[in-house]
Amino acid sequence: MDVYSLIPVLIILGFTYFTWFFINRRSKNSEPRNWPLVGMLPGFIQNAHRIHEFFTDILLETGNNFEFYGPALGNMNMLFTSDPANVHHILSRNFSNYPKGPEFRKIFEILGNGIFNVDSELWEIHRKITMSLISHAKFQILLKKNVWDTVEKGLVPVLDAFAERGTTFDLQDIFRRFTFDNISKLLLDYDPKSLSIDLPHLPCEKGFNDMVDALLYRHVLPESYWQLQKKLNIGKEKNLSQAWEAFDQFIYPAISQKQEKLLNKTNKDEDFDLFSDYIKAYNQWTNGDTSGNVQEFLRDTFLNLMFAGRDTTSTTLTWFFWLLTKNPLVETKIKEEIEQQFHLEKGENLKFFDIEESRKLVYLHGALCEALRLFPPVSIEHKSPLELDVLPSGHRVTPDMKILISFYTMGRMQTLWGEDCLEFKPERWISERGAVKHVPSYQFPAFNAGPRTCIGKDMGFIQMKMVAATIIYNYHIQLVEGQTISPTATVVIRMTNSLKVRVVKRVPL
């Protein structure tokens, strides 16, 4: 990057901060003022710490669509939207006009050529092979085995230890460690044992937090700004670089170890082997060309799946248990459902149940959907059209314009969920016949929508039900009072700081 090209950027940023501190005054409405030269950037910076609430305030006041004007030289003009018709159009009806594209891949460069980052043929190869694998009967068996193994050897001993000591701990950290261990075993056949009583520090596990912290800022700030941070190795870009290094140091050795096992045929013939299938996918993509790097392909593939398997599930479980502490009647109903469906006697503990049995837990499913509605893990979707398009809302969007879809806002819209949209009500997901209601993905986009709908949706629910049911029936989570709970200003909305709790055992294990 030419140093002289940064001068206009630095001038704009300096003027922006001047405007923010000395001119801008908070008005009664949430719409940021459009200033000369710097556009609406001062209002954005002022609300950066509460970006999801900021988007929501604006969108609910402006009818679900808002045009954001950035600095004159910043290429930051954006359309914020939570309009279900626009969501359906962008993610489904006109899907081919809204690929990830080069700008998205630049923002998410750390994910390489994984499923979240690619388009066209490679995306279709990734999706086809991953869907084939997760629908395989042996994968279902492996999933159940891994989840219960991590529950029995990781989660239960840790919760028992905290219960015995009576000490407070961060439940969010426990869930992140649980999902990290589980997805590592599932994909890499390697148990990092981050969920141990001593709670060891693992750079790779912590690296996911630094990654999602940096990625939202790459979405909404001028590229020249974060590119400068990257070049100088400062700020969030420094943390992102360190996370990248931690991922590589964790994943590449695990890949090499697995390849060596395959080469030496130390795996049993009947074992379900994801590695071989993904190597076949790589050969399909390269047409058998051996000049490429299969390890890099596997690294990108598994990092993408680890990101999905760790962050989304752990985030949902964290918000779910916080909501339960605020709604004890819901917790009681879930406990009663578990007891009835699994025919448990009083004083009998809940240990294992299979995937089919998990489908009986309808009320628990509804409660998890409520947590996903109010706190969708991936809260913002970033799109740009290949060609000029006119959205159902009437807005013209061009290839040089960003569209930010706020899934967070959509869970708080009275037009979609009624006047009680801010309440935690699992009943809204249950039909008169006692089954889980179907809600269109363009209304409930917690798992995205259209062709890029999350293919791990069922897997996520299975894992969350197994963990949630085990904790709810065997333990009672008590929230430590005095905490300020709010979502992080990140792509994956974790809880700011932590979720401090105590745990009490209900029944002996």
UniProtKB/TrEMBL annotation:
<comment type="similarity">
    <text>Belongs to the cytochrome P450 family.</text>
</comment>
<keyword id="KW-0812">Transmembrane</keyword>
<dbReference type="GO" id="GO:0006629">
    <property type="term" value="P:lipid metabolic process"/>
</dbReference>
<protein>
    <submittedName>
        <fullName>Alkane hydroxylase mah1</fullName>
    </submittedName>
</protein>
<dbReference type="GO" id="GO:0005506">
    <property type="term" value="F:iron ion binding"/>
</dbReference>
<dbReference type="InterPro" id="IPR017972">
    <property type="entry name" value="Cyt_P450_CS"/>
</dbReference>
<keyword id="KW-0503">Monooxygenase</keyword>
<feature type="binding site" description="axial binding residue">
    <location>
        <position position="454"/>
    </location>
    <ligand>
        <name>heme</name>
    </ligand>
</feature>
<feature type="transmembrane region" description="Helical">
    <location>
        <begin position="6"/>
        <end position="23"/>
    </location>
</feature>
<keyword id="KW-0408">Iron</keyword>
<dbReference type="GO" id="GO:0020037">
    <property type="term" value="F:heme binding"/>
</dbReference>
<dbReference type="Pfam" id="PF00067">
    <property type="entry name" value="p450"/>
</dbReference>
<dbReference type="GO" id="GO:0016705">
    <property type="term" value="F:oxidoreductase activity, acting on paired donors, with incorporation or reduction of molecular oxygen"/>
</dbReference>
<keyword id="KW-0472">Membrane</keyword>
<keyword id="KW-0479">Metal-binding</keyword>
<keyword id="KW-0560">Oxidoreductase</keyword>
<dbReference type="InterPro" id="IPR002401">
    <property type="entry name" value="Cyt_P450_E_grp-I"/>
</dbReference>
<dbReference type="InterPro" id="IPR001128">
    <property type="entry name" value="Cyt_P450"/>
</dbReference>
<keyword id="KW-1133">Transmembrane helix</keyword>
<dbReference type="InterPro" id="IPR036396">
    <property type="entry name" value="Cyt_P450_sf"/>
</dbReference>
<keyword id="KW-0349">Heme</keyword>
<dbReference type="GO" id="GO:0004497">
    <property type="term" value="F:monooxygenase activity"/>
</dbReference>
